[in-house]
């Protein structure tokens, strides 16, 4: 029996399709034709099975980040946020987002045991920021995205397409963005 698109990637018991939820997907690219790549990625997401609607913010440009802070030597990112109404399970959606990244040339080296993933320039980066009000912390999935509240290039575009946005467990996006912009460590 094949695993259906509403089944968790790691397997598990058979389930009925998920009710429709709104997933927040951050898109970014800093290599190649960034604008074209983001446009194609949005089309690819819209074509996924069990995706009912997609709303996309305007693109903004941002500096590349590393764990140590901004990297002014790396090419700048073009970023956007998509609100994706879907009946896919969050783990399935994340796996399909990874496939879209790979189709656009994204290489995802496995982190070494005990180390953070490599931060590198990317042809395409698709992050699952939130999925409805789901809060999860498993090896396969962390929701909401652990650094979402620290990224104005996620919060700003998200707020532009959803003025009432709330980061599950984190608060209103407008307040998070205001706090971030007022932070002296910014």
Strand and helix map with partners:
Blueprint: E1 21-29, H1 34-46, E2 51-56, E3 60-62, E4 64-66, E5 69-71, E6 77-86, H2 90-103, E7 125-131, E8 136-137, E9 142-143, H3 152-161, E10 166-167, E11 171-172, H4 173-182
Antiparallel strand pairs: 1-6, 1-7, 2-6, 3-6, 4-5, 8-9, 10-11
In the CATH hierarchy, the architecture is: 2-Layer Sandwich
Main beta-sheet annotation = 5 strands, antiparallel
Percentage beta strand: 25-35%
Q: SS-based structural class? A: alpha+beta
Segments where pLDDT lies below 50 for 5+ residues? 1-14
Rg over CA atoms, rounded to whole Å, is: 16 Å
Which overall shape is indicated by the principal axes computed on the Cα atoms?
globular
Question: How would you portray this structure in words?
Answer:
This protein is of the alpha+beta class. It has a single domain (21-182), classed as 2-Layer Sandwich (Alpha-Beta Plaits). Helices cover 25% and strands 26% of the residues. It has helices at residues 34-46, 90-103, 152-161, 173-182; strands at 21-29, 51-56, 60-62, 64-66, 69-71, 77-86, 125-131, 136-137, 142-143, 166-167, 171-172. Strands 1, 2, 3, 6 and 7 form a five-stranded antiparallel sheet that branches. Helix 3 (152-161) packs antiparallel against helix 4 (173-182). 30% of the residues are buried.
């Amino acid at each position: 029996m094949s695993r259906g698109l509403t089944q968790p990637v790691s397997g598990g018991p058979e389930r009925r399709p998920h009710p429709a939820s709104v997933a927040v997907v951050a898109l970014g690219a800093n290599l190649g034709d960034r604008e074209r790549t983001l446009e194609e990625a949005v089309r690819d997401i819209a074509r996924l099975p069990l995706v009912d609607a997609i709303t996309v913010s305007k693109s903004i440009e941002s500096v590349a980040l590393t764990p140590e802070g901004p990297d002014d030597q790396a090419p700048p990112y073009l970023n956007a946020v998509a609100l994706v109404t879907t009946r896919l399970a969050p783990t399935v959606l994340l796996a399909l987002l990874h496939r879209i990244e790979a189709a656009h040339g994204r290489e995802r080296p496995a982190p070494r045991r005990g180390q953070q993933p490599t931060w590198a320039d990317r042809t395409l980066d698709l992050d699952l920021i939130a999925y409805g009000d789901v809060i999860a912390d498993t090896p396969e999935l962390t929701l909401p995205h652990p650094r979402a509240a620290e990224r104005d290039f996620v919060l700003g575009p998200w707020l532009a397409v959803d003025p009432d946005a709330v980061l599950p467990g984190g608060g209103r996006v407008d307040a998070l963005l205001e706090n971030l912009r007022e932070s002296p460590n910014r």
